[in-house]
Amino acid sequence: xxxxxxxxxxxxxxxxxxxxxxxxxxxxxxxxxxxxxxxxxxxxxxxxxxxxxxxxxxxxxxxxxxxxxxxxxxxxxxxxxxxxxxxxxxxxxxxxxxxxxxxxxxxxxxxxxxxxxxxxxxxxxxxxxxxxxxxxxxxxxxxxxxxxxxxxxxxxxxxxxxxxxxxxxxxxxxxxxxxxxxxxxxxxxxxxxxxxxxxxxxxxxxxxxxxxxxxxxxxxxxxxxxxxxxxxxxxxxxxxxxxxxxxxxxxxxxxxxxxxxxxxxxxxxxxxxxxxxxxxxxxxxxxxxxxxxxxxxxxxxxxxxxxxxxxxxxxxxxxxxxxxxxxxxxxxxxxxxxxxxxxxxxxxxxxxxxxxxxxxxxxxxxxxxxxxxxxxxxxxxxxxxxxxxxxxxxxxxxxxxxxxxxxxxxxxxxxxxxxxxxxxxxxxxxxxxxxxxxxxxxxxxxxxxxxxxxxxxxxxxxxxxxxxxxxxxxxxxx
Length: 478
Ligand code: 4AD
Ligand code: MG
Hints:
This protein is an alpha+beta fold. It has 14 helices and 16 strands. β1 and β2 (35-39) form a beta hairpin. The longest helix is centred in the first third of the chain and has 23 residues, at 127-149. The protein is globular, with a radius of gyration of 27 Å. The chain starts with 7 loop residues before the first helix and ends in a 20-residue tail after the last helix.
């Protein structure tokens, strides 16, 4: 029978001197043929284990390589060394999984992120990635807690959907047809009636439209699930499969939506600061070490922990899109023609413009609202001016857009007009339209990109490094 183990987090946080315990994990270091640093994933901290090279089997000790998997039974004692309060005096040791250091691709010295991405089955054993994924867990938990504490219901919206009207990006088709063997109709087109669902289906790009159904009965709901976009954006901010949190609230307008977004984000930051301090401190220090050799322009304007606290303590700047355009056209980079993309009313803000607003102009998160109707989705509420819609984007330093949301068009006639303008077949949206015809309510909501938030919280540079198994163009390993 497997011995019952004690987690290292518990051994370190509530050490019981002279107790005999068994710990199990992966070797992080073995020094002087005597000191093992063991990590079991329960905390970023290692437990120091001491063996006596004079009495222990030398062949066994040779097997204590970087990342070999072991179990150790021993006594908790006060540490002789200065690095730790306690250590484990080993009595017996079992090797679960050996490592041939020549063949093992992960090395004790710092690795490139690219190599670790290719070895995603091993990368969680590194300090950096274990910290990131513990934080990811805590953040997911905090998201549920926030909504639960505030009276929202968690609504599971479908992953496979027959509606493709959101217009949020290219979709992945879901079919049981074999390529080139799909049945054809008289016109020679694929006969989707014959397919599994009796019609074309896709992986969802967003749970919003279904969440709106929920809000029209349960009042306040949220979705939190994977979403899929087949856009070919090979950037450090885009994934083909990412997770999104989408609250949807009845009897709420754009201002209420912005208030909710700001309160929610600040709660999440406070939660991780309180519950993930060891991991965050580790990441903060790691970034400061990495930046020592960099030029000032390439360093963060503020260390990681300070940034998180700063965002919690300061009100987000809120400006209408039209105002943002004016500011941008008066900016130094605009006048010196340093922006790559045009700045004109009616054109979407590009990352370079968003970053100027956030990082140079306001030096804090910015919510831009009331965007021109032509660059936003059909369901956003048309403003009195007939030109703009009640949309808002929350922009964060170093990241750009983390949240996109809006007040929804609840007026049936206006919505129908917008659907036509967008050239969306009414049949595709019959239920969405009926929601406004029968007992419709004013609603508002938004989508928070989970991995974008993770980037901000961890200070990681690439979105592929904050999701366990990234899916990007030409890459779906693991
Ligand atoms: O702005 P988006 O497209 O909004 C929606 O999907 C709405 N239905 C949300 C709503 O109102 N309920 O996406 C929302 C957020 C973005 O702000 C961004 O943080 C993230 O999702 N996002 C991505 N994250 C990673 N990879 C991608 N390809 C992303 N596309 C959007
Ligand atoms: Mg958006």
